[in-house]
Task: inverse folding
């Protein structure tokens, strides 16, 4: 019999039976770490770790120390500044970084600092024990201050007056000080070590921190054998075992003695944390008084049951560019600003603290910069002049002025409340409008100029996206993942037929939908959605994305696979390949080589059941397969045959295929046959063409 050409159509089909997929295609029915290019299957590219370096106590790049980012990376933005310097902003669930020249600089905003300053409100002589300050805001009720070279302790505050003062403490001398002299809050020997332990206790009255928050220590002297460099780390320390006036941190080295010290110029800078929307790796049920049966648990403690379905969302960032500067919004909280011209030695600052700021919203679900009109737009935002978040309200700043949010006849700021849905989930700028998705509908927001500034139109219903990062703009077309379907907007909304839809929706962890994110790979015309699968059994209770579903919009083909990534950015500028972060905070250059950072990157693809005879009625004997492929390394080929679609399977192989393999000789009988191709070794890469079978009619024996 002549050789029969077997052409498998592009894409994986899993939502019908393998036999039905064979009759309809034939198609591929399973795969991992493969894609489709020009209609044919091939193994995806590998990845290679790119070192990220830390900084020393002076916030200077330390190219001798490779680090992982603190926290799970959730959002990336990448740009080239006017000076030609490439920068990457990365928001993790508890930190914000700028990566420049491969060094990571922590620019997480500061919530509070022990080194806050004020001034004397009147002159001070050497005997006074009450000290009038211009402002005592932020000072604890008891503590210490430094005025010029004098250190003074106090026991109480009355309005802006420190009382119960002891002058000239800690080997300093009482002195006279002029009105308006700077007053600095200081900590006196706040560091306590434990012999042969990494645990250090920090004492700071009324510090206001929570478990999981971070503190940066500066100015501390070596204490108990822990060096000053190890105490004064720009990376900071995670706070644990919190009490009202103290907490613990973990030193990178053990102390050699148990002492209390640190010196007289210790400054503690507290980064924004749980109270400011950072620090929650996963969404969690809210607990509190009033849930459960009467008398359960103890008075004043949270109940063991969730309060009527209330969910505290995980921490997320919106990272946008204003020119070459960064605007960073913490979901459900504040907007921050990082000025590129100030450099990596500065941290992001509250936008509301900048000069000219007016009515900047204090709570925001998501923010974007509209194009080309240049407004800062927030969706799910606090009402004007208030601090109550309206999850369906859109507000925007004045044009070309991201700090002015007060509407007037001389500016373009304003607001608009959307109607369909319970909350705004995501926003995406396009060429002509801002695309807004609630949990139920999508809207278009178009700039029309004064007096209304923007017009709003309902684009589609029952098509809201599932997460803040699940929308992707590809040349003006918007792709996104809905609750059970995939959609595209190109003037109108339509569902993208997806033959692996039910496979994905059955596997996806419904409690972790907010961790889904979209990624674009323009080299291969792919939009990919990463998600947390139900197979993920993270021991810490915080599963991260481990699987993906990918759509090739050129071939109209879908593929599936397993890769653990938490955020992604497509190739840009000098970065010729996409790059992404793992949950551990490591950076990887994707589509680099054939392996998974030096380890084998396994991949396989399997065909549907293919009728060997033209009618499907005859029992056939296949004794030869002619492969058509390009392979580096080896590829195994396994043949499966059946007499009936629901019959048991006869397996032949696996057979090893290399670039020099011209044929596979074997003997397999059946009406339907399928084939699995798989690679498992370091250096394996391959792309497939069409296969041919040599077959003839055969009897039952």
Result:
């Amino acid at each position: 019999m002549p050789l029969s050409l077997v052409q498998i159509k592009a894409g994986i089909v899993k939502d019908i039976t393998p036999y039905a997929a064979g009759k309809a295609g034939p198609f591929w029915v399973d795969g991992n770490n493969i894609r489709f290019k020009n209609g044919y299957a091939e193994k995806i590219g590998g990845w290679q770790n790119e070192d990220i370096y830390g900084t020393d106590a002076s916030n200077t790049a330390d190219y001798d120390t490779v680090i992982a980012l603190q926290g799970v990376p959730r959002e990336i933005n990448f740009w080239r500044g006017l000076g030609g310097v490439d920068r990457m902003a990365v928001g993790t669930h508890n930190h914000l970084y700028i990566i420049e020249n491969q060094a990571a600089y922590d620019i997480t905003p500061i919530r509070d600092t022990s080194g806050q300053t004020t001034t004397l409100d009147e002159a001070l002589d050497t005997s006074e024990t009450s000290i009038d300050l211009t402002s005592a805001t932020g000072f604890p009720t008891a503590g210490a201050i430094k005025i010029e070279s004098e250190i003074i302790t106090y026991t109480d505050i009355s309005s802006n007056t420190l009382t119960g003062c002891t002058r000239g403490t800690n080997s300093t001398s009482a002195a006279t000080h002029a009105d308006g002299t700077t007053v600095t809050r200081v900590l006196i020997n706040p560091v306590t070590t434990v012999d042969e332990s990494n645990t250090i206790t920090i004492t700071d009255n009324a510090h206001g921190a929570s478990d999981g928050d971070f503190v940066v220590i500066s100015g501390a002297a070596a204490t108990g054998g822990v060096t000053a460099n190890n105490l004064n780390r720009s990376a900071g320390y995670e706070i644990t075992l919190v009490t009202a006036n103290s907490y613990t941190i973990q030193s990178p080295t053990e102390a050699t003695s148990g002492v209390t010290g640190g010196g007289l110029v210790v400054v503690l800078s507290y980064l924004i944390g749980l109270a400011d929307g950072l620090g929650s790796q996963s969404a969690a049920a809210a607990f509190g008084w009033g849930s459960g049966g009467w008398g359960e648990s103890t008075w004043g403690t949270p109940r063991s049951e969730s309060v009527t379905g209330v969910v505290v969302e995980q921490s997320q960032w919106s990272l946008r560019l204003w020119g070459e500067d960064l605007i960073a919004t913490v979901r459900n909280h504040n907007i921050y600003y990082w000025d590129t011209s100030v450099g990596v030695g500065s941290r992001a600052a509250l936008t509301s603290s900048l000069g000219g700021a007016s009515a900047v919203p204090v709570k925001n679900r998501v923010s974007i910069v509209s194009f080309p009109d240049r407004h800062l737009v927030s969706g799910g935002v606090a009402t004007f002049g208030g601090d109550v978040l309206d999850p369906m309200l859109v507000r925007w700043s004045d044009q070309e002025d991201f700090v002015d949010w007060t509407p007037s006849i001389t500016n373009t700021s304003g607001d608009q409340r959307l109607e369909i849905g319970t909350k705004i989930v995501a926003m995406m700028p396009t060429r002509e409008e801002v695309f807004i998705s609630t949990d139920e509908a999508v809207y278009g927001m178009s700039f029309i100029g004064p007096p209304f500034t923007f017009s709003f139109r309902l684009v589609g219903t029952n098509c809201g996206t599932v997460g803040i990062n699940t929308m992707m703009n590809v040349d003006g077309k918007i792709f996104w993942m809905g609750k059970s379907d995939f959609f595209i907007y190109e003037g109108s909304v339509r569902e993208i037929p997806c033959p692996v839809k039910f496979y994905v929706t059955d596997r996806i962890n419904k409690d972790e939908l907010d961790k889904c994110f979209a990624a674009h790979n323009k080299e291969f015309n792919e939009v990919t959605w990463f998600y947390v699968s139900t197979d993920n059994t993270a021991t810490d209770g915080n599963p991260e994305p481990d699987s993906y579903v990918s759509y090739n919009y050129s071939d109209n083909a879908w593929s599936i696979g397993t890769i653990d990534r938490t955020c992604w950015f497509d190739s840009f500028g000098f970065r010729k390949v996409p790059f992404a972060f793992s949950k551990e905070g490591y950076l990887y250059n994707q589509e680099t080589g054939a392996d998974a950072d030096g380890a084998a990157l396994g991949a396989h693809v399997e065909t549907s059941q293919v009728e060997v005879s033209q009618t499907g009625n005859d029992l056939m004997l296949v004794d030869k397969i002619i492969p058509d492929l390009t392979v580096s390394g080896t590829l195994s080929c396994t043949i499966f045959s059946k007499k009936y679609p629901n019959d048991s399977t006869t397996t032949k192989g696996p057979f090893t295929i290399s670039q020099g393999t011209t044929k596979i000789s074997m003997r397999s009988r059946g009406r339907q046959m399928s084939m699995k191709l798989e690679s498992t070794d370091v250096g394996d890469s391959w792309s497939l063409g069409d296969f041919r079978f040599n077959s003839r009619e055969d009897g039952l024996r």
The two ends are 19 Å apart (CA to CA). Residues 115-186 form one domain. The first helix runs from residue 18 to 24. The chain has a mean pLDDT of 93.
